[in-house]
């Protein structure tokens, strides 16, 4: 059980509006203001400031938000664990590559071992998952791509190959091509915020290139549609090996590489810092042997 002022602080961090925070908390606006001023007085620093009439967190406020999120999360998990006959609860988030092509064996293993568990799995892009984790709605995430690892407790889950794919009869099939050759093709990519897209964009930046240098870029959030369009010769794509393993084996897609532009990706286990329960999830944090 934590001081309710921590919760008030976090709700205000989420809404960045005193009126909306008060409505969400079923408090008066002066009560919210009083609780925030108490915290500012206690720590001797401003937690929020107004810039051009817009409420913003100060640097001290951002630090306190990071600490408080872990405290509130741990408190809620302890309350649940101490409730008599409370079922095991686990809320997992995975990025789409991991959720659709990697994690199924671990989910089956967990559910067979804990048939009574209250289990949920959210499959979303990396940025959405990290936001849900920070708000305490997920216990941990397995994500790909680039993110600020220092903000979380992380562990490398596994590394995967990442490369270009095209139709088997495409002129790029089974070749190592130049970036100039690639710029003449339609790119079929995941949406912004996805780890898959971030890997490719980072590789382009290392070559002093961006997506603006391509005339045709199509954004598709569904892997099945991406692979179907690519197999039909509509464009080319860049995906992790597990996503296209079956298609490459069946010959419906072909692989290609871009010279001087090596690409690979890492999958990470991440939870909030100072998480008291992270040791219970060792089987999720480690790659299958």
From TrEMBL:
Listed PROSITE patterns: HTH_LYSR
The keyword Transcription regulation is assigned to this record: yes
Sequence ranges assigned to domain HTH lysR-type in this UniProt record: 1-58
Molecular functions (GO terms): DNA-binding transcription factor activity; transcription cis-regulatory region binding
Keywords: DNA-binding, Transcription, Transcription regulation
Source organism superkingdom: Bacteria
Keyword DNA-binding belongs to the record: yes
Gene3D superfamilies assigned to the protein according to its UniProt record, in alphabetical order: Periplasmic binding protein-like II, Winged helix-like DNA-binding domain superfamily/Winged helix DNA-binding domain
Similarity comment: family membership: Belongs to the LysR transcriptional regulatory family.
Name used for this protein in its record: LysR family transcriptional regulator
Organism of derivation: Candidatus Ruthenibacterium merdavium
């Amino acid at each position: 059980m934590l001081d309710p002022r921590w919760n008030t602080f976090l709700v205000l961090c989420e809404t960045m509006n005193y009126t909306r925070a008060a409505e969400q908390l079923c408090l008066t606006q002066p009560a919210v203001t009083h609780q925030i001023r108490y915290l500012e007085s206690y720590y001797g620093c401003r937690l929020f400031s107004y810039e051009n009439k817009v409420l913003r967190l100060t640097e001290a406020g951002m630090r306190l938000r990071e600490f408080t999120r872990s405290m509130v999360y741990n408190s809620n998990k302890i309350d649940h664990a101490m409730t008599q006959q409370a079922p095991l609860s686990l809320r997992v988030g995975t990025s789409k590559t991991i959720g659709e092509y990697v994690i199924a064996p671990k989910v089956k293993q967990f559910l067979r071992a804990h048939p009574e568990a209250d289990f949920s799995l959210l499959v979303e892009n990396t940025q959405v998952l990290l936001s849900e984790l920070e708000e305490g709605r997920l216990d941990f995430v397995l994500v790909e791509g680039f993110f600020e690892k220092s903000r979380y407790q992380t562990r490398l889950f596994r590394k995967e190959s990442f490369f270009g794919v095209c139709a088997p009869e495409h002129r790029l099939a089974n070749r190592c091509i130049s970036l100039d050759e690639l710029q003449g093709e339609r790119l079929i990519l995941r949406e912004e915020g996805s780890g898959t897209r971030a890997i490719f964009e980072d590789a382009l930046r290392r070559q002093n290139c961006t997506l603006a240098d391509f005339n045709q870029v199509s954004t598709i959030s569904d892997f099945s549609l991406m692979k179907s369009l690519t197999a039909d010769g509509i464009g080319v794509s860049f995906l992790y090996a597990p996503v296209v393993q079956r298609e490459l084996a069946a010959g419906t897609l072909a692989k290609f590489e871009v010279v001087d532009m090596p690409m690979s990706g890492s999958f990470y286990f991440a939870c909030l810092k100072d998480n008291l329960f992270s040791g219970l999830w060792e089987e999720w944090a480690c790659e299958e042997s």
